[in-house]
Design brief:
434 residues; alpha/beta; Purple Acid Phosphatase, chain A, domain 2; 2 domains; disordered N terminus; metal ion binding; hydrolase activity; Pesteras_lmo2642; hydrolase
Length: 434
Amino acid sequence: MIVIVASFIFLIEKRKKSRRLIEKTIPHIDFDQNSNELDLVHISDIHYLDPSLTDYGQAFVRNVEKGDAKTVRYIDQVLDSFILEMIKKKPDAIIVSGDISYNGEKASHQKIAKKFKILKDKGIDVLIIPGNHDIDNEKAKSFILDEEKRVDSVSKEEFKEIYSEFSYSDEDPKVIGRDKNSLSYMYMINNFQCILMIETSCGQNDLHISNQTYKWIEKMLNIASINNLSVISVTHQNILAHNKMFISGYKISNSSKLIKLFSDHNVRLNLSGHMHIQHISKNEGVLDAAIASVALYPHLYASIHADARGSIEYESQSIDVEYWAKKYGWKDDKLLNFNEISKEFFIDCTKDQIEPVLNKINISLEEKREMMNFVIDTNLFYFSGRMKEREDLNIENINYKRWKKYGEETFLISYLDSIYMDFDSSHNKFEIKM
């Protein structure tokens, strides 16, 4: 009996000591204790290419612009428009979930850090993690005339140095903890909210969470729980499956353990990117909100409103490049009509992928035209998370049936099936209530 009592007392004292140690990690910052609300903005997959690395000539068109519809040609202007919009909006923090650079170019990272400094100087916190494009990238190149050349990328240490003002400084008082095995950290943004930034793009954490990092994550969640702090997590890759064709290479390979941890610690929202598609997925009470690439039409970012009770409101919206162009007196018609220009570029890139498939199908030109338009509309509304706005886009549509009939051996029908098997078609707006 004495042994049992002694063991019980030992456990109580051990927990008290552990709690005291945990409480010491909370920063001594004079947060507004009356603050009950928080506004965040989430962007991802900027794929910024510093203008000094290209003349937008033949090499750029061949290697960059003929890619996956990212408007890299105008990404400098898109980002400047975003910064202007954020200065007006004044969120408490902006979260950038990786693939900041086009392919890890040092010059691109340095330029974008200067742009984010504008926001920092306006009192807006900027929280960053790298994506799979950002560090030690052998594809870091310049594109001048008809020639592509290797340029410097960045190491993990250089990445931390470049973004030292954006939560990678060891002296940042709001950082509760850092993972020694990755570029992950937890940031206390006000008196009730933490942001858990989980890096899964480098070394042993490449598309994977190591055992060491999992131990660190659990420690951070315990710190938050003991101190009654809410947590929103952030990853570059997705933590849940969003589309059966976007799992391998897109979802963190061992994220099921993360979902269990989040469910146990009441973490109900993860912000991710990587797919370039606006999409929401849910499992075990945890939502994974993947924001579309900000470089891709319609150039989305997410606004997130949280309160001290734990309620969250989420909505994605487009950057207004045309407003920025008019405000600063641009005469370029493509910037003054950017919404239409960007949309047409997206459509043209879709056509380039679909035409070779349709050319192999022996049907009338009119049927081909209608099948093409069906895929274009599908892409426009699926990538922007707005399928709900087009009730005619469904498996009963004659052009879906044509693709099933004539395109059975093509990748297109698998792609379309992966989209039209998704019955929850609202992916731009949601609320999480207590």
